[in-house]
Amino acid sequence: MPAKSAQQSPRAPKASPKATCDKDTTAKKFWMNNYGETRWYDDIFGRNYRAIMNQPLTPNVYECGFPCQPFSVFRALEGMTPDLFILENVEGLLIHRPNTLAAIVKRLRERKSGYYNVHLKLLNSVDHGVPQNRKRLWFVGIAKKIDKNTFTWPADIGSVKIDDFLDPGVKEVAKSMPPKSSAFAWQSFLKLMKDAVASGLNPLKETLVMDIESTKPGWMGRRAFGRMGKMDMNPHKMGQLIGNAQSANVLERILFQALPAAGIIPQSELKGRWETRAAAAKTVASFSK
């Protein structure tokens, strides 16, 4: 990701992906459909680190979600010495595997003889503009030689309403119900509907989000499908892709703080699309255009 020149628009700092890695074929199809050709590796063990780093513009930002084992951090960063790295993992690493987490943080801080200042925090997507309860651990590493020591984690701003993400119009409850053949999901749905009515809610007029352990993403509207709708992707695969995806709003907010702290792009030249709830609402509204 090359630094932006002074002549470029403050709303669109220039950046281009230098390499991407994912073993999931659906993820690869989505990437190619939206971002075009790039240096792609199906397996992290098969990456050509020299080819990635020895490019006309050396990548200075590296971001990934890595497996939970401590050694996997070295594998994810092997051969890489970016100015800034951002890593993501599940909440369970903090709650159920504190020793593993401690080993990961230790390895990150000791990497390249203490080359990086490393920050760690648990962030929830619902606190950063998107109505999704998705807690994830985020790691930010900034090379000490360029660190301006100004990095702070983004402050909570709350969330816009779920309705802002869904198609407007009449709510078709019948089409959102799980099939009766899925006994557990069906019974869960009936119970949650009864509980909602008993609490004074009207499911025919108000938007309800229910966790019924259904794999069918029937609650999603056309906006939510977005560009994936052009890919002829089956609902199960699409659900898996969404379920494994990172929270782009949280990642964008971290970059808004980390890029200036690493001296890559001045904050005055960045546009914070999620820095306030009003800005988040405006950003969500732009998705349907």
TrEMBL record:
Residues 1-21 are annotated as: Disordered. InterPro entries: C5_MeTfrase, SAM-dependent_MTases_sf. Keywords: Methyltransferase, Transferase. Coiled coil: none annotated. The keyword Hydrolase does not apply. The keyword Cell wall biogenesis/degradation does not apply. Residues 1-10 have a biased composition (Polar residues). Gene3D superfamilies: Vaccinia Virus protein VP39. This is DNA (cytosine-5-)-methyltransferase.
